[in-house]
Structure formats: C-alpha cells, structure tokens
User: Which sequence fits this backbone?
C-alpha cells in the first residue's frame, strides 16, 4: 500500500499565497520548498535488510526588510491548517529577529518576476513488487544494494511575483555483486521508466563480469601507471572539485583547489572543457535567491573562464550573479568528450590500469589541486588490450593539474550521463555527463 | 513529548506484532561573523516521526512530517505493509529478535543555564573575527557558532518509554591566509568542536583569543617550508587523534559493516567476527571505550534510537580487540555482545550501527616526556584532509599544522603535513599515550554512512599520542 499522496504543488501554491499575503509594508518574502515522497530499500545477501518510506517537506522563509534579512526553515506536514499555524509563528519570529539585525552589505536577491515549471511523472516500481523482483533476479548472488525512488520536489515563490516548480518522479538503484573473495562489481540502474527486464539484464551482465575476478590479483607497488578512468571514476575526480573548485567566493578567498587555474597561472589540457549545463535538465532552473539559473562555461580548452556566482558573492565581490546556489557547488556538470570510441578503450590503454570506480577522495594539497583517494570495485590490470587480472584497492595521491593536464592522452567520444544518487537528508537532483579518460601516468602511493 | 506520543498511541490500531514511534523535534540557530560582516540569522526547526512495525517476520518503517494522529496512524499502516512485503525476503527474522524495552530520560548537562542572546553571540564572534585581522595576507576570517536543541521521544508497543533532551554547541573560528601563490588555513578544530552543554565549551576550546592565535599560526605557516618526506615518529594532538580514532578504529568496528550491510556504499571492514577476543589491534597502551556517559561529549545519551540503555564498554583493552560497535539487532544477528549504538541522523532515517562517543583512555606520559622521547619526529594537529579505503585499512590524513621534533625538542614549523599508513599495523606502533593533562574532547556532526545516507553526531576524547616510524610528507606536485 501507499499512503495518501500530498499534492505538494497545490499545497505550496496556496501556502505561498497565504505567506506572501502576510507581509507588511516594506517587506519582501522568498519561499523555498524541498519535499519528497520516497521509498528506500536496502539489500544484503540478496535479501531485504531495511525497507521503508519517507514523506517530508521543508520550507525556508526569507524575510527581507530594506537591507536587513533573516532565514528560517521549518518542516511542513501537508496539512494546511497545521502548516499555516507554523508559518505564522515563523514569520513572527523572523520579524522579531530583524529588530536587532543590522544592514547586510552583501544582501542581494532577484526582484524580477518569472514563472518556470518542470513536471515529469515517471514509472517507478512498487516496493512490494521490487522486493520480489530482486529476490528472483539476484537468487544465488551476493547482492548488496540500495533502491531509492519516488517523487522529488523543489519549489520557489517570491513576493515579487516569481514562481518556480520542479517535480520529478524517478529512481536510482545501485548494487554490488560480491564474489567469494570479497571483490565486487558495482552497477546502477537509474531513470524514470522502470523496466523489470532491463534490471534483470543489468544484474545478469554484472554477474558475468564477476568472471574477471577468477584470475589471481595483480600486486601493484607504488609508482606511476598508465591508466584508464571509466566515467564513474571520473565522477569522483570531477565531483570533488565541483564542491569548491568553481565557487566565486572560494576563488576570491584563495581557498579554491582550482585557484591557479582560475587565476590563469595553470592550465589543463586544451581538450578539457567543462560547464555547469542546465540543458541536461537534471536540476531546477531557479535558485533560492530567486534567480533563474544559467548554464556557465567553467573551463574552455583547458583554461578557467567562469565561476559559479551566488547572489551574495556577486554583491560582495562586485560580480554578476549567474543563478548559482548559495554554496556555489556544481549540480549539473558536463564535460566535453574526445575522439576515442568506448570499444577501443582497452586497445588504447594497451598495458596499464583500468579504474572502474574511485572512492573517498579528498584534497591533500589545496594549492596544487592534489587529490588522494582509493581505487574500488571494478579495477583491473590490462595487458596488450586485454583485461588480465583484478587489482586490490590502491591509494593514489596525484595532482589534477597533471591528470587533466600533461598526462591526458585520450577522452572517450560519448560522455555518459550519471544521475545524482545522494540521499543526505533528502534525495537530490542533478548529475554529471562525463567521458572516460586515458592518462599516461597515475601516481599510486600505497 | 512522551505524553503527546502516549495520547496519540492510545488511539492507534495495528495488527503488527511490534511497533515503535520515534519523535524528533530539533531547533537550530546559526550565528556567524565573516570578515567583520554579520551574516544573516538562520534558524530551523525539523519536526517529524519515524514509525517502525514488525509483522510476519519482516520489518518496515515509515517516516512522516505529518505528526497528527491521522498522519502517524497512516505511517503505522504503511510501515506494517512494508514489513509484510518484506516477509519471506527479509535478511533478518524480526519475530526472533529480542527487544528489551527501555524506560527513562536524559538531559544534556547545563541545559538550565541560559545561553547568550544573538547580540551577545555576535559580540563574542565579532571580537574574534576582528582579532584575526593582523595582516593583509589574512584573506578570510570567519567566526561562528551553531546551537541545536534536540528533543527525542520513543514509545513502543512493548512498553518502551524514553524522553531525551540535548543541547549541542558547535563553535568554530577559521582563518585563511594567502601569499605568493600559497594558501594556508587554521581553524579551531574544523567542524570538530561539537559538544553538549553551554558556554563552558568555548572556555575549554580556548575560543577567546582564537582569532589572533590562529591568524598568527597562518602567517607562520605561510612562511614555513613544506613538511619533509620520510619516516619519523609522529606525535598526534587530540584534535587529530579524533579523526584517527574515528576512521581507523570506529568505522572498522561497526558490526553492521562487518556483517556486510554497507558494502554497496560506505564499505566493509578488515575486521571479521572471528577476531573479537583474540586479535591484537594495537600496542598494550591502546585502550578504547564506547562511553555514552561522558559528561558533555557530543554523543552522550542514555538510550539509543532502538530504545536500548547505553553503558560504557571497552572495545579494545591493552591492545586486544574485545567488542564491536553493534546495537541489539546486530548483536542478535552476529551472536556477540555489543553496545547501545543503533542510531539515526533524525526522524527521517532508520537506525543503524554508528559510533557515539569513542574515546582513547589516557595513559601516563606528560607532553614533555613524549616530546623529549622523540629523536626524529613531527607533531601534527588539526585535521584538514582524510581518506581511507573501503575496508578501513589504507589511510592518508593531512593536518593544518606541523612542527618538527629533533633530539627531544620542538623545532621548525612546517606546512602541509600529511601521513599515511595501514590501520592494521598503525595502532601497533603506538609508543606513548599522554596523561589526562594532554587530553582533549572533540566531536563532529558530520559522520557519514548508510543508505539512505545519514550524518550523525559523534564524540572523541583522546590524549596526545606518539606513533613510531610513520611515513610523513608534505605538499607539492
């Protein structure tokens, strides 16, 4: 069974009208909603470890009076009477807090009026049926996985007349198949049109790839290795710099790991071009400051040419806001592909390391954009264009100025779309579109 | 809160053979002054409930932000339906899992003592922020405090009745300097200063004067050489020991991880069930405790989120591995004793095995004795970078601040100090454990794990410690 679904679009529209109707002279109000109705199922040993459902909504109100402002976030239940009572109390608290708040020299919000709506229904599996499907498809396998699916919602309304709505129904199912020696292949199936047959085929394909693990593992020592990074591994490398590397604020305070790139004292290989690409359609086209988001070219032909600028940074540093979120993190990164067909990856690599996944990356030297992390899951030793043996998890410590610079040899020709699977607090929107990459050397340290 | 739950529960109808409700009401305030500019006031209130039901041997949960009687009944019905859907496919036969209903309450220390007003906090933060403005090379100064009141109630069909009230304080001061293409950062403890209580936390952390002190450090680091590469004895201060304990003892000992639940995301463990009782995890000097009763530590509580009463336990005694970090459910699965650590990040996530307060017990060495006993070494403090493999073995950690030790004396300051090692051998190189005078208590709200993902608060208290012959290195390409 499913619980009665809250019609969040109608609820938010009515709630926002009521909230904005309560503003007083000289006040502006911005309202941002994040909500979800999600099913979560964890599997271990092809059986259900945890199964449940989460229904939640969080509303952030920003009250602005002249150059003073404050934020308050509250949980909303979907019941109009309850939520109106909570909102009324929140507004009182916000208004009181402005009394002892000084002018904020960095206050900025969009005062235009716009309307944007994205509403995508999808076909997601019923939890009861999915449990049975996994039980059948994963029989006999050491299947460890996580299904997250349902509806994700982001809404915005302002007293200046803007209204934004982003509602999508989709799923993201990732699983790992382990062999008897504790080595694993990780696979995912994400989208908005679930098909039992596609899932069964993906499980079967992954199970067949476990055969690669039957060979004796290749023992690597520290040193430099010719390497291919699959798109899922690229997602970890590029994703890490997406946190702070393109932030206007982090650049202005010299904290960005790409400070040298953005300052023009370092370049990447001319084949490297990256953009925050709203055309991927993976995220809302608006932010909580009321701005419509823009696609932003970040790196073009190896040179840092753009940054994500929030409203606050724009006012502080005299820049133009481009719809970035407050954290100035990428949400929808797209990297230009190269010329190498995927079918020729192993031949192009020749002899070296095939890295399917990376894990637990962190910056080890911010100034030099040096990153450390581990190989994980499908990582193999390749000789003469053939996968020869698995490789146990190895630590690397290498600079992105090398990996995306002097060491780039090939980029694959068809970048792969990798949907965001984060569930910190709530299922997230977004993703990346990335090619695979062959590099001349990759520094392993432990 | 508990009374409200009892009233609601009186009207529930359910065919589940067991149900529980966990209500969480959490209010947070953020105050910050950055580069002498007061940042906008932010508050939040997160309020909701998780209902769990066991039926036909399966278990299901439903979390809802609708905490009306009707909303909770709907959640109970959905949780029961999910439990039934998993029956026959469940990894665990929940009909056979023993439940010991806890009853009681907990309150953070000092809750009755009022905290400063916003104006009071801002005055304090502004003073530290201004104190760091000592050079044009200081490019960012940020002083902040986050105050969280978190109220929890737990009620179950078999009689559990628990109410817990927490007050968390998370102060931070961060100073960034930049000169000649290099950037250096010093902070009070990163986001590792979380504790329960009141203003005494800031006193313990020496918050007063931290702006100037950290800015001085930044300027010294900007002028310092890179940490040298080589093998040295390593003196880790408590604010880095926190991370070392967390990553290479805490996570590997989580019993659900050992049982394989986390293999698709957070990872497995190099520790196996057979190792408890006979595995030498570290030198004789290593004593690790799970201590939910430590006053004021970030993850002190009386009951975990499955309603089990929490008590102090040794996990590692004189270097020997004794007990995992596993709650009642994991203990039943594994057939071994554990601790009360089944915890969730909030009402919208189901409990799993987590660290709580995981502490390294003090030894007998003074700081002077530890430094004096090092011929060729380095002191490192304040974590800035961390990475470890999915079995929690091969790690690399970096610190904000390093200072060389030669012939028993602290000498040159070095920047970008890093070290790497392997958990299974690192703790066996523990050569000295500081006495109580060297101890520090830290905590973070950002311990991540689980599917769906959860961040929970954890605490780590430790003395300074010395490790022999560790591979250290600095920055640069």
Assistant:
């Amino acid at each position: 069974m499913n619980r009665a679904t809250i019609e969040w679009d109608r609820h938010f529209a009515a709630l926002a009208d009521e909230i904005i109707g309560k503003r007083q002279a000289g006040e502006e109000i911005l309202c941002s909603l994040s909500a979800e109705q999600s099913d979560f199922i964890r599997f271990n040993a092809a059986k259900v470890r945890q199964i449940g459902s989460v229904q939640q909504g969080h509303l952030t109100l920003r009250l602005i009076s002249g150059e003073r402002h404050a934020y308050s976030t509250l949980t909303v239940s979907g019941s109009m009477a309850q939520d109106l009572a909570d909102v009324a109390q929140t507004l009182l608290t916000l208004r009181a807090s402005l009394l002892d708040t000084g002018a904020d020299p960095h206050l900025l919000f969009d005062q235009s009026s716009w309307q944007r709506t994205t509403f995508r229904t999808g076909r997601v599996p019923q939890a009861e049926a999915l449990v049975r499907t996994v039980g059948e498809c994963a029989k006999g396998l050491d299947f460890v996985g996580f299904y997250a699916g349902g509806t994700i919602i982001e809404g915005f309304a302002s007293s200046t007349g803007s209204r934004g709505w982003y509602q999508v129904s989709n799923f993201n199912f990732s699983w790992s198949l382990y062999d008897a020696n504790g080595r694993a292949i990780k696979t995912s199936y994400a989208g908005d049109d679930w098909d039992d047959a596609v899932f069964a085929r993906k499980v079967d394909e992954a199970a067949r790839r476990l055969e690669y693990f039957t060979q004796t593992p290749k023992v690597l020592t520290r040193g430099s290795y010719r390497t291919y990074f699959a798109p899922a591994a690229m997602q970890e490398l590029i994703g890490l710099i997406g946190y702070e590397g393109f932030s206007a604020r982090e650049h202005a305070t010299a904290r960005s790991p790409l400070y040298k790139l953005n300052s023009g004292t370092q370049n990447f290989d001319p084949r490297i071009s990256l953009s925050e690409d709203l055309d991927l359609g993976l995220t809302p086209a608006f932010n909580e400051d009321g701005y419509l988001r823009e696609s932003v070219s970040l790196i073009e032909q190896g040179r840092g040419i753009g940054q994500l600028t929030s409203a606050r940074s724009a006012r502080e540093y005299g820049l133009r806001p481009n719809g970035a979120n407050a954290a100035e993190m990428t949400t929808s990164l797209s990297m230009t592909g190269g010329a190498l067909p995927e079918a020729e990856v192993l031949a192009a690599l020749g002899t070296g390391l095939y890295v399917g996944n990376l894990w637990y990356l962190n910056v080890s030297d911010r100034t030099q954009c040096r990153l450390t992390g581990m190989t994980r899951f499908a990582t193999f030793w390749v000789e003469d264009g053939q996968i020869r043996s698995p490789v146990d998890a190895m630590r690397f410590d290498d600079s992105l100025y090398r990996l995306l610079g002097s060491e780039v040899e090939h980029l694959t020709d068809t970048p792969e779309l990798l949907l965001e699977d984060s569930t910190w607090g709530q299922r997230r929107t977004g993703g990346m579109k990335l090619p695979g990459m062959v590099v001349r050397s990759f520094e392993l340290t432990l | 809160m508990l009374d409200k739950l009892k009233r609601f529960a009186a009207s529930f109808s359910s065919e589940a053979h067991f149900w529980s409700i966990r209500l969480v009401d959490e209010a947070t305030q953020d105050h910050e002054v950055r580069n002498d500019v007061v940042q906008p006031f932010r508050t939040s209130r997160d309020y909701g409930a998780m209902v769990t039901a066991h039926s036909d041997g399966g278990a299901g949960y439903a979390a809802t932000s609708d905490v009306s009687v009707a909303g909770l009944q709907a959640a109970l019905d959905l949780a029961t339906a999910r439990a039934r859907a998993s029956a026959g496919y469940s990894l665990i036969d929940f009909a056979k899992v023993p439940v010991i209903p806890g009853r009681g309450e907990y309150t953070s220390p000092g809750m009755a003592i009022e905290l400063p007003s916003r104006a009071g906090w801002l005055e304090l933060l502004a003073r530290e922020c201004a104190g760091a403005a000592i050079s044009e090379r200081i490019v960012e100064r940020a002083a902040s405090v986050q105050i969280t009141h978190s109220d929890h109630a737990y009620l179950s069909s078999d009689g559990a009745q628990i109410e817990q009230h927490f007050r968390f304080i998370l102060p931070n001061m961060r100073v960034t300097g930049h000169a000649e293409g290099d950037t250096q950062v010093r902070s009070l403890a990163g986001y590792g200063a979380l504790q329960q209580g009141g203003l005494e936390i800031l006193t313990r952390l020496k918050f007063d004067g931290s702006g100037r002190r950290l800015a001085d450090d930044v300027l010294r680091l900007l002028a310092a050489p890179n940490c040298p590469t080589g093998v040295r004895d390593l003196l880790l201060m408590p604010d880095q020991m926190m991370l070392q304990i967390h990553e290479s003892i805490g996570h590997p000992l989580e019993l659900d991880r050992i049982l394989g639940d986390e293999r698709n995301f957070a990872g497995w463990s190099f520790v196996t069930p057979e190792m408890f009782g006979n595995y030498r995890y570290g030198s004789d000097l290593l004593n690790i405790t799970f201590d939910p009763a430590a006053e004021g530590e970030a993850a002190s509580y009386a009951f975990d989120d499955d309603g089990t009463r929490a008590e102090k336990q040794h996990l590692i005694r004189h270097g020997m591995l004794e007990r995992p970090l596993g709650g009642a459910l994991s203990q039943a699965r594994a057939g071994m004793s554990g601790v009360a650590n089944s915890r969730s990040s909030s009402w919208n996530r189901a409990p799993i095995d987590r660290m709580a307060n995981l502490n390294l017990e003090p030894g007998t060495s003074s700081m002077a004795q530890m430094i004096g006993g090092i011929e060729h070494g380095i002191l490192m403090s304040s974590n800035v970078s961390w990475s470890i493999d999915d079995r929690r073995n091969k790690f690399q950690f970096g610190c904000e601040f390093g200072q060389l030790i030669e012939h028993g004396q602290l000498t040159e300051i070095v920047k970008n100090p890093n070290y790497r090692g392997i958990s299974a051998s690192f703790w066996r190189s523990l050569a000295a454990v500081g006495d109580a005078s060297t101890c520090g208590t830290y905590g973070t709200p950002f311990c991540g794990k689980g599917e769906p993902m959860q961040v929970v608060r954890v605490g780590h208290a430790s003395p300074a410690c010395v490790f022999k012959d560790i591979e250290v290195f600095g920055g640069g390409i």
